[in-house]
Specification:
Layout (H helix, E strand, L loop, with lengths): L1 E6 L2 E3 L5 E9 L6 E7 L6 E7 L4 E3 L7 E6 L4 E6 L8 E8 L11 E4 L3 E5 L1
Parallel strand pairs: 2-11
Antiparallel strand pairs: 1-3, 3-8, 4-5, 4-9, 5-6, 7-8, 9-10, 9-11
């Protein structure tokens, strides 16, 4: 089984930065897709960034140029550097592991999820 634990959320001012990290334990295949999703109150969960070990990276338009996803395969971690934060980035952020990386980043491709970490921009 795979377990994911996010960290790094918190409160930031508009224009500020936060870095989220996700540690994975368990059996993760080398070509797995690791992604970040977020869900704001009253809204659907949306995929915002995904990365595959092959180097393929996907971003949704709203975070492109501001957020950077990276992974450390040796440590089984995936990170999300978030710069130039905006109030509309406020949401619960989740990392997930799945088998398919593509755009749009569809949560149906991801079978393992973390508990989430709250990001508030105000």
């Amino acid at each position: 089984d795979v377990q994911l634990v996010e960290s790094g959320g918190g409160l930031a001012q508009p224009g500020g930065s936060l870095r989220l990290s996700c540690g994975a334990s368990g059996s993760i295949y080398g070509d797995a897709c690791m992604g970040w999703f977020r869900q704001a109150p009253g809204k659907d969960r949306e995929g915002i960034a995904a990365i595959k070990a092959t180097g393929a990276i996907f971003y949704t338009d709203s975070v492109k140029g501001r957020f950077t996803i990276s992974e450390d395969n040796a440590k089984n971690t995936v990170s999300l550097q978030m710069n130039d934060l905006k109030p509309e980035d406020t949401a619960m952020y989740f990392c997930a592991v799945g088998g398919t990386c593509n755009f749009p980043i569809d949560q149906r491709w991801f079978g393992y999820w973390g508990q989430g970490t709250q990001v508030t921009v105000s």
